[in-house]
Amino acid sequence: MTDRALGLVLDTTDPQELAPFWATALGYVVIADVDNYVLLMPANGPGPKLLLQRVPERKTMKNRVHFDIEVREIERVASELERAGARRMSDVLEEHGSHWIVMNDPHGNEFCVCDGGQSANQGG
Length: 124
What we know:
four-stranded mixed beta sheet, globular, 2,3-Dihydroxybiphenyl 1,2-Dioxygenase, domain 1, 124 residues, Signal recognition particle alu RNA binding heterodimer, srp9/1, 37% strand
C-alpha cells in the first residue's frame, strides 16, 4: 500500500458539458459537480480520479500530457467515441508493435485510443 495516488486534472471552459464524454470514454461516473469542478471516478474498480476544472481560456496548443485509452479493439472504440462527440485526428498509427489513433475530445483536448501492443493487427 502506498500513501500516494494519481489524480488527473483536465482544464476546460465547461466541465459540466465535457463530463458525459469522459464518463463514457473511460467508464467513469460523475461523483460531484460543484461550481467550477466536476469529479469523475471509475464506475467499477480502481483507477485515478479525473477532475474537470473550469478555466476562462480555450485550449490553443497541443497538450503537454494526454490520456491513452488502452483497449484491444481500437477501431471499434474510436468509432464509439466519435459517436460520443470525439474527432478522429489520425488514421491508425503503428510503432514498436503498438497501434493507436489520435483523437480530440469535444473541447479539442488530444487523447489516443491505443492497444498498448496487445493486438496482432488493427489495420487502418
